[in-house]
Amino acid sequence: MSEQFNRTALGEKKTSPENQNFKVQVSRWKVGFATIGLFALTVFMAVLTIKPPAALVLFSQTMVTLMTVSCACHASLWLRRRPICVIDAQGITDCGVLSKGFGFISWRNVQSVREYRDRGSVCLLVRVNNFDQLIARRNSLLRPSLKFSEFLCGGEVGVPLTYCSTDAQTVLEQIYNYSKKPQLAPPARPLARREQLVVTIRIAAVTLFTVVLLAVAYWLWQHFQNPTLQILGLDSRVQVGKQVWLQEYDVENHGHDTTGIHLEFSGRALDTNLLKNPRVLIEYETKSQIASPFLLMKSREIVPLVQVKKNVWSGDSKRAFLAHKDDMIFSGLHLYSNKFTSAIGWWTDVLGPRLRINLFADIPKIGDENLNLKVVPIEYPNSPATTRNRFASTKEKNFGSGPILSEGVPKDFPVTAYPDSYILWLSAVELKLDSAAAPTAIAAYYKEELNRKGWKTQINDDKPNQTLVVDGLKGKDRITVTINQIPHHTAVDIFLWFKY
Description:
Shape: elongated
Distance between the termini: 107 Å
Structural class: alpha+beta
Low-confidence stretches: 1-17, 288-292, 334-350
Strand order of the largest sheet: 9-18-17-11-15-14
Number of helices: 11
Radius of gyration: 37 Å
Strand content: 35-45%
Mean pLDDT: 78
């Protein structure tokens, strides 16, 4: 009566049909999740082996080898179709995991079954009375290890359930139902809520750790790989004339930092003499050395181009800096963690860092042709990037004033650049600067300079917008110096209004 009650409490069917069985299958999502985690860890260790300390070379290489083998084992487990074990009225069939298992084990040879857990792994240990016979079925290379295991803990066959779709409690119940042995009855106590919470927290922690590990491994891989350049440029229309601003190209580097680039221009625009005497102005960014670590130091350099062969012009810049640019997955962090990211060397500008190439040339006639640009890091000649754009020339004059071909502010410009500031934009009518100085100091500097050059000036203070404006008038011409206080730096915009 008591035995019948226990069987009913465990959810036993009244009769287990002789022709039915219970299969314990591998859970594909569990194995897939573990494979992804191991692969991420393998990639992380592989990145660390690129330039490890001499004492860790052997350790790093060994760990990568072991984890690679582990990844391969998990991948093969993910692809497997046969079950881990099969339970029926005759006994248990151990199908093995990566190799052939012990095979069929009759119920008359099963003495006990217990659950074993260790560091997240789960398995059932089936104690048998014919372990010597089962060992004889296995590969001869495995027999010494199995005999030693028998010497330590007796004749037990392990059935791993860590990556199975069925939990240990259910498997124990099925063993009890099919075997009809009272001594194999599983614990009737269900999993407590506290234990369920612990398991849930562990799964969440492992998931979070894996995601963070993947992100860190990807970030390190980007920083350690050779420069990977991307050139951004659009088709454009330009006016006929001398030293016309033709195009601007933004070069982004998704590999590690490098200094020095080689430029090469070619294409139909040069073949047909639609473009003559090309010249290049390069703008790039480096870490600021002034008091504020949040500024990017802007540098400008004119690179002379030389015709190396027919209609192919090239030039080198040995000091142009191509800094690493994070992908958008990391760029968003810069908006919320400026202090932290600047402390570990990350850039605080979401759009930067980048290198900008301004192309100037003589445009003698009207036409529509393509122009090719090739950029090669001098230290990494096998990492080039190319782009092709079209431009059309016209005699229209209403395209505004583009950048001028000058490293600094020209002498005929009404004002100079504020000391220790960086030029962000320079054209015939506009000058944009970035500075770490206070707005009041910048306003006083330009008021004094304009007064000395014969301009009538006044300072307008827009306190709600934290903006200072220095207005200057000379005849019909007007100049405005707009100074905006931005966290960690000051933006200055100087604009000329001729015949105002």
